[in-house]
Amino acid sequence: MRASLLLLLAALALPPAAQAQEGWGLAADIGLGAETEPDWLGSKDMETSPWIIFRNFDVTAPGQPATRDGSSDGLRVVPTFNWRGGRDPGDSEALAGLDDIDRTIEAGVRFRYTRGPASGYLVVRKGFGGHDGLVGAVGAKYRIAPNERLTLWPGIEGKFGNNHFTRTFFGVTEGESARSGYEAYSPDGGFYAVGASLEARYALTPTLAVVGEAEYSRLTGDAADAPFVEEKDQPALRLGIVNRFSLRF
Q1: From CA 12, how far away is CA 27, in angstroms rounded?
Q2: Where would one find the signal peptide in this protein (predicted)?
Q3: Domain residues for 151?
Q4: Residue 202 belongs to a domain with what CATH number?
Q5: What residues contact residue 208 under an 8 Å CB cut-off, 6+ apart?
Q6: Please, are residues 168 and 130 in contact by the beta-carbon 8 Å criterion?
Q7: Does the residue 224 lie in any domain?
């Protein structure tokens, strides 16, 4: 983790890539910040940790200019990555007797369709590490630009996972039941949370920007009924700084 943070800080210090308009283009916001979110899915306690930012990935055709924030019209299919925190029985009395869950790298694709200020998206990722299930989200956002520097995206989102994911984070196996005193619980896959968010981006230079997110999610379905869940409301706050990198080839 320390090496990753150092690489990100070095990347932010680099000058932006040349903005020649010929050839295919790749662009993304890369940066670093801090996030405050529940200690684990269903926790009532919050924790603050580093926020490694890789977002607004965009692909542009030959001759098409790179976008400032990835909000170009049309259908985009781009790679997506997520770092999901783990869970330790020592994090809470509610988890006593349950298994550890390691941190997980999630990799997959994002399908996004944008028309004017409105966009809809579907994200599907595969877990490697703490869980090996499929997880993702479906949602919609609306772009508001009060001025040349500030851009806002209010949005709604539903988060889903398959059986492997939900049973890892919300299930209770027979062995865990014997140790914890909870009844065995085997939730089905499906939507495990729904919510709303507000993203903001304030441009400091043509490539450097401050970004932030305020998110409210509520556990739903079988996830909300897990016997060890302390709190169904799951808010999160994030703040960081990014540099927009563009590459033409």
Answers
A1: 14
A2: 1-20
A3: 33-47+69-244
A4: 2.40.160
A5: 12, 241, 242, 243, 244
A6: yes
A7: yes
